[in-house]
Structure formats: C-alpha cells, structure tokens
C-alpha cells in the first residue's frame, strides 16, 4: 500500500499525487509497487527492500544523494505468545526533500502521526519530522515497558498459587520482549549518535538540542528495560522454586491423606478374607470393627496434625 501525504495545518493530510516536500507512506509493498517507486523516484532498490527484512538493524546509509535511516520500532502483538516485539522501518530522504516511509507495518498508525498535529514540527521540515518520529518511538518504548511491568505483576500474583509451568512460560516470553527492546533501543541509540556527529541531516542547533532530548528518553528506555530484565532473570529461578514447592505441598497433603485412609482400608481388607476372624460371630461385629478403625484414623490424623505433616 502506498499513501501520499502533504503538509498542511501542522499535520500530514491525504494528497492525490507525488509533489515536492510530500511524505510517501509505503506499507508492506508488493514487487510492482517497489518497482514503481524505484523508477519514478529513482530511489535505490536496496533502500526500499532492506527495511522489509525483519532482522535489519538500525543504521544510516547514503547513495547517489539519497539518505536511508533504518529505525527499529516497538510493536504490540495481541494474542501472540511474545506480546511485544520490534520491527525495522526505513526513512528515505530524497533529493527534493520528499520523505518516504517503508515498513512492514504502518508506522503512521503505530506512532499516531496521521490524526494529530505534530508538535515541534515547523512547516513540515524533514529534520523536524524525523526527530519527532524518533521522540515518539522512544516514548512508545517507555509506554510499552510500563505495560510489560503491569503484565509482570499480574503473572507474579498468579505464580504464588501456581502448580504448572504456564505462568513461568509467560514470564519467559516477557523476558524475550525485553531482550528485543534492549537490542533495538541500543541500535537506535548508535544510529542517532552517528546522525548527530555527521551533517547528513543538516541539523540546526535547535535540532541538535531536540536530538539530545530524544537520546535522553532513549537511554531512559534502555535503563528501564535493563532493570526489568535483571529483575525478571533473578526472579525466574525463584518462581521455579515456588512452583516446585507448591507441588511438594500438594503431594505432602495427598500422601498424608493416603496414609490415614490406609487404616480403615487395611481393616476392611483383613475382614474381607474368607477365614476365621475375631468378632465375626458377634451381632455387632461390623460396628465394633468400623468404630475401632475410625478411632485409629482420628488418632493418626491428630498425630499428623501435631507434627505438621499435613
């Protein structure tokens, strides 16, 4: 899908054709769409295909006057085993100041850039737009990290009573999300630091100050993800022990009940044999044997209770 947008009233709105200073949003393009962009805008084909590789790392590349910025963004996968992952998005800057977004997911929708006014973006200047995207990406990482912390708390509460590995596997999947986040955040940081040191984007003094603010937010996200990952790694072993201990407690109770119930079972087994047995000719033999077994059962239960064997 290819959507053409132009700058108007501090936001990008739908446009009918490609024009100077416009924004082209390319989402999960097909082969024909990629060829069309390559021919019409003379964009290097690698600049359009590389961001479609899910393993592409954040980087900067220039060729024939075109600038490619690959940024990794977070994504929430509803219903998936791993709730949060990351994906690459390519930002191509052309010679006529046109911005081209290329990704497998709609970054305009994920970063909520379509409906809202873009604060701090003056006249749709491409450097301001890119810095705004960087900032929104860092803030989205922080928001998702808060959501990860909330999910972690819910699973931790469930684990205290758990006897199975289901909750432990959920924690493992959350740990995978944190690994994805840390790897992507660190590569984003290296990319932005290189962008600040070079003149590829022609940043002004104000732009560099904004980029510094973005780097601060990005580093905060890295530290937060690192803290959560360390806590989670340390607690995984503890929770595994909790599950094992819960299972041991259940087995202990069931074993105690089994031992206690063996007393009337033994009496019933003995008196079920077809041989000469005590009390068998008495009219109340059944009540005597049952009462004796019940008393022995109660005595055994009291002993177990005193010794805390239940």
Tags for this model:
Beta Polymerase, domain 2, seven-stranded mixed sheet, Methane Monooxygenase Hydroxylase, Chain G, domain 1, 310 residues, transmembrane, 2 domains
Structural account:
The protein has seven helices and seven strands, in the order βββααββββααααα. It is α+β, with helices and mostly antiparallel strands and 310 residues long. The protein has a seven-stranded mixed beta sheet. A hairpin with a 2-residue loop joins β4 and β5. The relative contact order is 0.09. InterPro entries: CorA-like (IPR047199), CorA_cytoplasmic_dom (IPR045861), CorA_TM1_TM2 (IPR045863), MgTranspt_CorA/ZnTranspt_ZntB (IPR002523). Belongs to the CorA metal ion transporter (MIT) (TC 1.A.35) family. Keywords: Membrane, Transmembrane, Transmembrane helix. It comes from Desulfosarcina widdelii.
Task: Report a brief summary of the structure.
The chain has 310 residues and is an alpha+beta fold. The chain has seven helices and seven strands, in the order βββααββββααααα.
């Amino acid at each position: 899908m290819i959507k053409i947008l132009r700058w108007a009233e501090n936001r990008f709105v739908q446009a009918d054709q490609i024009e100077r200073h416009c924004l082209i949003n390319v989402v999960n393009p097909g082969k024909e769409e990629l060829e069309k962009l390559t021919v019409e805008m003379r964009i290097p084909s690698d600049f359009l295909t590389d961001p479609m590789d899910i393993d592409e790392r954040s980087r900067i590349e220039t060729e024939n006057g075109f600038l490619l910025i690959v940024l990794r963004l977070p994504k929430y996968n509803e219903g998936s085993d791993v709730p949060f992952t990351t994906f690459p998005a390519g930002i191509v800057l052309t010679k006529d100041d046109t911005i081209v977004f290329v990704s497998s997911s709609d970054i305009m929708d994920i970063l909520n850039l379509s409906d809202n006014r873009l604060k701090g973006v003056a006249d749709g200047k491409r450097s301001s737009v890119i810095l705004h995207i960087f900032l929104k990406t860092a803030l989205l990482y922080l928001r998702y990290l808060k959501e990860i912390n909330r999910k972690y708390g819910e699973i931790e509460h469930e684990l205290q009573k758990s006897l199975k590995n289901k909750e432990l596997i959920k924690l493992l999947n959350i740990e995978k999300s944190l690994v994805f986040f840390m790897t992507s955040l660190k590569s984003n940081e290296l990319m932005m630091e290189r962008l600040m040191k070079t003149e590829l984007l022609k940043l002004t003094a104000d732009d560099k100050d904004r980029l510094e603010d973005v780097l601060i937010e990005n580093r905060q996200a890295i530290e937060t993800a690192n803290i959560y990952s360390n806590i989670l790694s340390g607690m995984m072993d503890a929770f595994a022990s909790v599950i094992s201990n819960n299972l041991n407690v259940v087995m202990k109770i069931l074993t105690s009940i089994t031992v206690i119930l063996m007393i009337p079972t033994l009496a019933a087994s003995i008196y079920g044999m077809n041989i000469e047995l005590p009390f068998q000719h008495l009219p109340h033999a059944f009540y005597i044997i049952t009462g004796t077994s019940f008393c022995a059962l109660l005595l055994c239960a009291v002993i177990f209770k005193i010794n805390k064997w239940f």
